[in-house]
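Hi R.,

Here's the chain you asked about this morning:
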Amino acid sequence: MQKMSIFVIINPLFHLFWGIFMNKLKNIIFLIPLMFAFNAIAQSSMLEEVVVTAQKKEESLQDAPIAITALTASTIEDLDIANVVDLAGMAPNVHIINTPSNNTAATIAIRGGSTTNPAITWEPTVGMYLDGVYLGKGQGSIFDVVDLERVEILRGPQGTLYGRNTLGGAINLISKKPSGEGMSSKLTLGNYGLRQAQFITDLGLGENRFAKLVVNKKQRAGYVRMYDSPYQAFDGVVPNTVSSNDKLDAIDSTGYKFTYLYEGDKTSVTFTTDKTDQKNVPPFAQLTYTIPNWSAAFGLGASALTGGLQVAPIELFANSERQSMAHNDTLTSELSMVKGTSLTVSRDTNLGTLKAIWSKRETEWFDRLDLDGGPFNIAETARDTDYEADTFELQLSGSTENMDYVIGYYMLEDDAYTSNPQSYFLGGSTIVQNYSGTSEAEAVFGQITWAFAEKWDLTIGARKTEEDKTGFKEYVGIFGQSGAGSFDDTTSTFILEHDYSENTNVYLKVAEGFKAGGINAEAPTPFESLKPYSPETIESTELGLKGRYFDNRMMLNVAYFDNEHEDMQISYFTADAAAASQVLNNSADISGLEIESMTLLNDSTVLTLNFSTLDAEATGNVVAQDGFLVNNIPYSPEKTLYASLEKDFGSYRVRLDHTRVDEHASFPYNSQDFRTELTYIDTNSKTDLLVLTEPMENLQLNFWVRNLNNNYHKSSAISFGPGFGYLTVGYFDAPRTFGMDLHYSF
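And the predicted structure, written out as tokens:
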């Protein structure tokens, strides 16, 4: 009787939400089956089942009542996915780019939630996990993870099972476990001097014991070549020189990962250690705009002291179109060392599986940047960063006849420090900014899924989080300031799931997320450095459908969501006082529709279509220190599209991948602010071509062309505002590249 009474209450409520949901989708869904009217070929193949662990348990992707994109080992190998940036464009409402000026730091936005400030003391809005271990910062987050088994991209707040800093979502990178498969290798050759070699040794060490060593070496010459400045004394300019870098945007990376696995009847032990060293040259910060006669306006034009020669006419180097040559004076560099050690122990007990995960990760990171795009020291900065984090998680997961459950405890301690010297206007303005921060976080969480009636499941979860933070910031010789804050919150999850039919599941999800406040290490004044900014919270409502149709030849997943952000943490770059940033807490309402489909058009052709919409609106009345009302949500394009068509011709396969991302703001400036126009990102369309063949059982050759249409697209930009004459630099995506991957198993 208890179950029936709950059912009677919930059933009409669910159908009410479901009716609203279907009204939004029916025009799209009803068109999809039309493609099958043109396909009369006898068909016997089916789409493979994908198993995920996003909810701390194994389940089918189609049974998981959350918005999730999963990439399998075969797709990862075909597309040569090795790091988080390689995932760009594949999942709906997921936007991933290199952080401006860097090849080892990522900016990730999911459903409009992002962190645009790359400072080590800033917390991300999207959580990244490697084999269950939290990767806490954007700096150093781009490194090749070789030998991936699966990637899971979770969209929407994951406040119960993942907790801190997952308001936008989470990305799980899951490695293949050692299994004694033997040895394998991969060699990659491409234009722009691309050379990459990977070697994997996977050995059995005896009964239930295995070890795996993965070694990776990657080198690439830069996309932009350095040349002497075309403007010298003969052209009316003070003689100048460029740096000794031959090319910009170059990569030199070396890494390894060692894993030991014991897999007993009831006990499993996994020990992992990894390290990646990168010695790169950063991308070209190309000057795209200055005010007219910039040098004269700033006293750097023609001077009697220089015999009438112009001192630093940086405006001569401005160009809004992508350039393949540069004339920088700064010897730029980007060094990144990330390493980690983790131990995972799981034990089957009468109460369920008890799992403990301990990890320690360290980052040593340095960059030196030329931020004016020319041969004059108008803007030069450096960052020297040290970061370390210790985490521990304890989980107990199990099931009964009609219930699944997981409970756990989580702990994190981290410590970050950055020294940030800066030089502007030919050294006339120099400053050293140092900042640091620590975090101590603890959480307890639990989630149960109850099959309370036939075809109905109810999931309820909660997480209690407490965080203590400290921060220190100084302008050397000017002021120093310390601050501290304590933050806590309880976030919950509610999911109602219904097996609508034999091949269709629908769900209603209401979830909360939390990101602690902190100390603004880049504040322009000591007063702002002292006072903590507020924590950010989110309430999300999501309606979803997951289905498999036409004898499991078509997968269709749809989600509609509405997210309400309170005190959204916005980094507002002011370029005042050593390129400082304000932290503004604003509110926002972000909603959208996401459609994922994969269809076997016939036994040899697979079509994947992912489409999303996003409606992002700042709903607060927060005014920045420059007097502008903040009304843009960065990296929130209205529409995104991913399409992939793969055809198997027997002896080879051909695959086309196309992505399209609508225009969008990259900073939160007001729409009337000129900086919005200068940093606005245009619509981008890109197509990749892949030809795959297996001439031998243990040999696979992949031939690829990326950016087939050679689109010169600007993916990010930085404007230094009126104090610098609106000097703006842009960062462009890679040009057309081509090459081959050779996979060989011994």
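The longest helix spans residues 2-29.

Let me know if you need anything else.
M.
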